[in-house]
Amino acid sequence: MLYDKLKGYSKSGVYPFHMPGHKRRFYNEKLPFELDITEIDGFDNLQNPTGCIKAIEERAARLYEVKKAFISVNGSTGGVLAAIRSMTKKGDRVLVARNCHASVYHAIELFGLKPEFILPEYYEKCDIFAWVCAKQIEKALEEHADISLVIITSPTYEGVCSDVKAIAEVCHNHGAKLFVDEAHGAHFPFSESFPQEAVKAGADSAVISLHKTLPSMTQTALLLTDSEELSQSLKSNLSFFQSSSPSYVLMASVEMCLDYIEKNKSDFELYNENLNRFYKASQRLKNLRLLKKADFEFGFDIGKLVIVTNNTDLSGVELAKILREKYKIETEMSSLNYVIAMTSVCDTKSSIERLLEVLIEIDSNCLVPDEIKPSCHKLQIPDRAFLPCEAENHTEVKTELDRAENKAAMEYIWAYPPGSPLIVPGEIISGDLILMIKSMIDAGVLVYSSQNNLNNNLCISVAEFD
């Protein structure tokens, strides 16, 4: 059934302004069963590569200009888990940007870490978290001298970057390491129009998802570092978080992706030209608008087309539905006040021009709302009753969301995508958070907990206290 659905979708005529970055243009439509093998003689072993797989990793390191690059066939999630385990020991205090991916929080819970959270700068024009400030990190490191690792996301899901170079300097001056979830920045080194790659900027380690913005298959990622000392631990810990029988088809797609990058460098310049043309022509929009480089202090990925709807009578969810149902354009994600159309070097000039024409047509039919739309994303850091790793010491009970105020959560709640938790186990559920979750659901945003889809069942697990 899944194969039939995939085959049907590939022939539907729907254009993918979403992951994966190959945009379904680089592979045959049949699944390559004839290429699917295991670790047999002559084909190397991902857990301890010495031959053709090692050559792929060395090639990746050269392209990204780092000392070591390791393949992850469990996506950036596997890389995140491996990196955090490699850079901490049980009980360590870590500093975490609140907009980090769920995998970071899972690592905190799994490894018994003590998180201190910081809120990135908030960009009110479309209700998103933006960059993390170096001064903010320095203040936290001065208050908690025992922090061993700082974890940030740059670029964010919306393409906003932090000043990684300044943050790395602050971390190292205070004896802390820096890990950057750079999953959405795999394409950064290949055009001067994009921000600097995190390890080149001074991060101790970073993870990138090849499949998000480059022509590689879903689940393929790289873990990067310039530290010889750290590299052996990264390699060892990756084996904990990905299959002992990795897909050779996925690894071959990494090799094909690197081959494409080496042989088609001019495509990235053409991609950049197509994007710049799009942004220039988008000035014709009267009500819809796009986020731009000039909106942000440290950097922005122009390949993320963030279409803001808060000056129209449409929500982001409604705009995504119109694009899907009327124009056969599937976007990456939608929230209350914006839609992300995710591009890659594999998008054609005509496809990007078509999106612009469609947006101009939709824009011409938009009405300006009578009042400013309320925000539903201005998240604050909740109070904490216990650490996530201590949740197993508490009895879990189910309750309706409306009755969960002032209770400690026993599960994660997040809007997906992007997968950054609104609350984590051990944190106190506030009335404001309940209102935020309900407003997101009312707007059609998909909200999940660890155990169910809250759009269908407004219940959550909380800790039972005497």
Kindly describe this structure.
The protein is of the alpha/beta class and 466 residues long. Helix content is 32%, strand content 17%. The chain has 13 helices and 20 strands. It has helices at 2-10, 52-64, 75-86, 102-110, 134-143, 164-173, 210-213, 228-238, 248-263, 265-281, 316-325, 349-364, 431-442, and strands spanning 15-17, 68-72, 93-97, 114-118, 122-123, 128-129, 147-153, 177-181, 205-209, 221-225, 289-290, 304-308, 329-331, 333-334, 338-342, 396-400, 413-415, 421-423, 447-449, 459-463. It has a seven-stranded mixed β-sheet, sandwiched between helices. A four-stranded antiparallel β-sheet has the order 11-12-15-14. The chain has a three-stranded antiparallel β-sheet with strand order 18-17-19, with helices on one face. Helix 2 packs parallel to helix 9 (248-263), helix 3 packs parallel to helix 4 and helix 5 (134-143) runs parallel beside helix 6 (164-173). The termini are far apart. The model has no long low-confidence stretch (mean pLDDT 91).
Relevant terms:
466 residues, seven-stranded mixed β-sheet, four-stranded antiparallel β-sheet, 13 helices, 20 strands, globular
